[in-house]
């Protein structure tokens, strides 16, 4: 999600979508074969089965869990299409917010504080095309262009941020990050905050992570800054606001024949 205080209420009247039951087969069906095989192996593992039992137990107890499709980031961005990875922590925990994409909220939901700061950085960046501040909080357009918007924990309970942290999702997301690192096409890792930076270091196993680069030969670019939450967006030593990550990412992608992202 954004920061753990990002609790914006949905605008308008609509049915709040949430997870109803533990059904990995339904989430795997829309995935490209590469992601499907990786995720299937996880769900078949002891960690995956235990995770499923814990979440189903909470559902049976009446817990409200988001999002309804935990693997949506993989649905929208196949492994072979990834050009950039933005790493979040866990889904937003307010009604109607989470849509399975890091920092993104469902269409029609007011952008939470961290996302508003992300939009401020987009508008501020002088190298990007002039624009007005977006009013819609969904980042699906980025995902459709190859930006993998991945949270490290893929479910959360209503009003209880990080309550599923350490239950097992991190094993899957570490495998996903490792698979991205192993890709030959140069790409950009955009890591905002200490959590995201620590997770990438763990995925590398202490190997292959260089200053500003990751992967064999340092083929991928790593951009780091503070988290975009209001508490840290302007703090040193790497303030998020003013980081220029979106234009830096496009410069790198263009230089390596990947094409720019229409942020």
Structure in words:
With about 260 residues, the protein is an alpha/beta fold. It has helices spanning about 25-30, 35-45, 45-60, 70-75, 115-125, 140-145, 170-180, 195-205, 245-255; strands spanning about 65, 85-90, 145-150, 155, 190, 210, 215, 220-225. The strands form two sheets. Strands 3-2-5-8-7-6 form a six-stranded mixed sheet, sandwiched between helices. A two-stranded antiparallel sheet has the order 1-4. Strand 6 and strand 7 form a beta hairpin. Helix 7 (about 170-180) crosses helix 8 (about 195-205). The longest helix is centred in the first third of the chain and has 15 residues, at about 45-60. Residues about 1-15 have low confidence and may be disordered.
Which descriptors would you attach to this protein?
alpha/beta; 9 helices; 8 strands; disordered N terminus
Task: Give a concise summary.
With 263 residues, this protein is of the alpha/beta class. 33% of the residues lie in helices and 11% in strands. The strands form two sheets. Strands 3-2-5-8-7-6 form a six-stranded mixed β-sheet, sandwiched between helices. A two-stranded antiparallel ribbon has the order 1-4.
